[in-house]
Design brief:
This protein is mainly beta. A 16-stranded antiparallel β-barrel has the order 1-2-3-4-5-6-7-8-9-10-11-12-13-14-15-16. It starts with a helix and ends with a strand. The protein is built from five helices and 16 strands. The relative contact order is 0.14.
């Protein structure tokens, strides 16, 4: 199914692109533009976690993009291509041992072909195909974008329950995305992607370390996500609801085919045909338009998945981001977020049967406080503090306190 739907998307692009590019006098043209984004993050464990320590990691993202719109047909054509370089290990991999990764820019050290795509746009719809990142188009929030912990971006109720976190940072997946906005207040988008961006059921990120190992469908299955967004005109609130589904095979976390705990029976786990979940988010802006100086953006977001085949039964996060907190610093952002991931009861029971003397799995909770200082149009500096209750998902590790600092540059 993945191959078939992706082929339809490519055919749609091939059919529509000539109409967007046919006009001798285009209504508008942008690019090609070339850019470079650089981020360097340092972290220190003050207390708790797997160990105290320090880490230094960074990334560089080089990209080229462009767009053109035809005056005669009204269609537009856009393109994007990028290369990602990751260096160093972040706090999760170096010393912390948490489940909700403390830095959303931490990934496998590599230089890879990253996201690349072509897109045809019209007045109310757009179709994009290539190597895509679902976390760039789905499940985002205004306030969550001001925080560093990965759980405020691509949430644990997806990343913790699908194969190798799904089509998200730091590995794009072949796929297609269709978006439709029939009114200014209502929009819908859906995407289908290869089911394993690593191309490794064992989670070995080195298999696709260069981004050129593109295997589509087959036993890897497909990852699908759909999202309906609503933003009433002249209202301070907005929101979205949706669902995701992975078509691959997923083992039951507790029971065998006879319905008994496999830790006791010795039989293989029951295999389920697919897994998925539901999600909902509500956002509100206080004091003006979203993302503008002097405003406060807030959100509540929650998602759930079936207990019998999921690591995370549900996860939720709340956050606020105050833009321009000081009279002389209108572009700075002060943000606070709280998130929790609750492990499935079936998984908790299974781990108790397998290791009765260990502290049982239950949840991980993170409180983050962050301040983004915009030095100028190119540079930012972001000090950050994160406290984690039950890092790693149980009382086996002491509650942790981690200090992070991130420097960003855009050229």
């Amino acid at each position: 199914m993945c191959r078939l739907l992706h082929s339809f998307a490519l055919l749609g692009l091939a059919f529509a692109a000539p109409f967007a590019l046919s006009a001798e006098e285009p209504a508008s043209r942008i690019g090609p533009r070339v850019g470079l984004d650089v981020s360097v993050g340092a972290a220190a464990g003050v207390r708790g976690g797997a160990a105290r320590g320090e880490s230094l990691h960074g990334l560089a993202l080089g990209y080229v993009d462009g767009a053109v719109r035809s005056k005669s047909s009204g269609l537009g054509f856009a393109y994007f291509g990028s290369v990602l370089a990751l260096e160093g290990r972040g706090p999760t991999g170096r010393f912390l041992g948490d489940f909700l990764a403390a830095s959303h820019s931490e990934g496998f050290e590599s230089v890879r072909l990253y996201s690349w795509w072509a897109e045809v746009t019209a007045e109310t719809w757009s179709l994009r195909a290539g190597a895509l990142l679902a976390d760039e188009e789905f499940l985002g929030t205004e306030a969550g974008g001001a925080l560093i912990n990965s759980a405020f971006g691509w949430p644990a109720f997806v990343s913790g329950n699908t194969v190798n976190t799904g089509p998200a940072f730091f590995a794009a997946a072949p796929g297609a995305r269709l978006a439709w906005a029939p009114t200014p207040a209502l929009s819908w988008q859906t995407g289908i992607y290869d089911g394993d961006s690593f191309d490794s059921a064992e989670g070995d990120a080195s298999v696709n370390r260069d981004g050129l190992h593109l295997k589509l469908g087959g036993r890897q299955g497909c990852f699908l996500i759909t999202q309906l967004a609503f933003a009433p005109e002249n209202q301070p609130w907005r929101g979205y609801a949706g669902a995701w589904w992975h078509t691959g095979d997923f083992s039951d976390v507790l029971r065998d085919e006879q319905g008994e705990p496999f830790a006791e029976s010795g039989r293989d786990p029951r295999v389920h045909d697919g897994t998925g979940g539901l999600f909902l988010a509500i956002e509100r802006t206080w004091g003006g338009e979203p993302g503008k100086p002097g405003t406060v953006d807030t959100h509540v977001r929650v998602g759930t998945s079936p207990e019998n085949r999921s690591t995370v039964a549900w996860a939720a996060d709340v956050a606020f981001a105050w833009r321009g907190p000081l009279p002389s610093r209108s572009d700075d952002v002060f943000a606070v977020g709280l998130t929790e991931a609750r492990f499935s009861d079936d998984l908790v029971r299974a781990t108790r049967l397998q290791a009765p003397d260990d502290p049982p799995l239950d949840y991980e909770r993170v409180l983050e406080v962050s301040y983004t200082w915009k030095i100028n149009d190119r540079y930012t500096l972001q000090p950050d503090l994160q406290w984690a209750r039950h890092p790693g998902g149980s009382a086996a590790l002491r509650d942790s306190l981690t200090v992070l600092v991130r420097f960003g540059a855009s050229f």
